[in-house]
Write a structure and sequence with these properties.
single chain; 294 residues; alpha/beta; TIM Barrel; eight-stranded parallel beta barrel; two-stranded antiparallel sheet; 38% helix; 15% strand; disordered N terminus; disordered C terminus
Length: 294
């Protein structure tokens, strides 16, 4: 079992990771890996599983794709939606025409649950991303068993060969990996590990401070053709999406703004259909200020 983490000096992230280590140990006792593999053997063999291509869903010619997130709470904001109903949220996202859905499954810090992923799979055929703090191979097998089409991996947490191994394992199970980064070094690590989809997190997981300018600063380091770029966190308005589209991002992942909107369908409508421009060598958010219709 591979568990590769980086120490971050009593930050919020380190507290989350410490709890996640304990949680995975308890989960493995209740449902051993051998049982998950047995379930997957049946699931992947008969009948042939339907392929929901997460990467293809994010390639919209000339437009920014939208990954809408099911998220009850966060460490920085607390409760986002008091009358949280994950099934209703998934249905609203599907009705509104999002391109993919992200399901937060961390219980303690984000109010999620692995069961929400399985429930979402029974409602929609849209590609599903499991968003959690993945530190073991066990969680990747579990993710596939729950019906996900992609799994979030944190480049800042998975060190050595672990990131590449986890990407390979996800693909062997019919999933893709969204590799989240925050620095030029993490982007290089992701590219060297074979990542196809790279997320740039505008939120610092050590402090939970947010700045969408982080995407503009870092996108230039993603220099391999065909790599899909996703901007994550802090995206609230159509103007934000347009600014990021002008930088050449392929997709945005939006959670809090949609969950707090009161009407997820209207929230999605405000963020969809934004033009994406070719990726630039240099990108500043001021490039899109004053653009009509944003």
């Amino acid at each position: 079992m591979s568990i590769m983490t980086v120490s971050v000096d009593d930050s919020i992230l380190e507290r989350i990771l410490q709890h996640k280590r304990e949680e995975v140990v308890a989960t493995r006792r209740r449902l051993p890996l051998r049982e998950i593999k047995e379930r997957l053997k049946d699931m992947l063999s008969s009948p042939p599983p339907q392929r929901r291509d997460f990467a293809a869903a994010l390639r919209l010619p000339g437009q920014v794709a939208l990954i809408a997130e099911v998220k009850r709470q966060s460490p920085s904001r607390g409760i986002i939606q008091a009358d949280f109903n994950p099934a209703a949220t998934v249905q609203a996202y599907q009705d509104a025409g999002v391109d993919a859905i992200s399901i937060l499954t961390d219980r303690r810090f984000f109010g999620g649950a692995p069961e929400y992923l399985g429930a979402a799979r029974s409602i929609t055929n849209l590609p599903l991303l499991r968003k959690d703090f993945i530190i073991t191979e066990y969680q990747i097998y579990e993710t596939r068993m729950l019906g996900a089409d992609a799994v979030l991996l944190l480049a800042g947490v998975l060190k050595g060969n672990a990131l590449g191994e986890f990407i390979g394992l996800a693909r062997s199970l019919g999933m893709e990996a969204l590799v989240e980064t925050r620095t030029p070094e993490e982007i290089r690590q992701a590219l060297d590990s074979g990542a196809l989809i790279i997320g740039i997190n505008n939120r610092d997981l050590r402090t939970f401070q947010v700045d969408i300018g982080v995407t503009a600063d870092l996108i230039k380091y993603i220099d391999q053709p065909g790599t899909i770029v996703v901007s994550e966190s802090g995206i609230k308005t159509r103007a934000d999406v347009q600014q990021l589209g002008n930088c050449g991002v392929d997709a945005v992942l939006v959670g809090e703004a949609l969950m707090a909107s009161g009407d997820q369908r209207q929230g999605v409508a405000r963020l969809r259909g934004v033009t994406a421009l070719p990726r630039k060598e240099q990108c500043g958010l001021e490039d899109s200020r004053g653009v009509a219709g944003v």
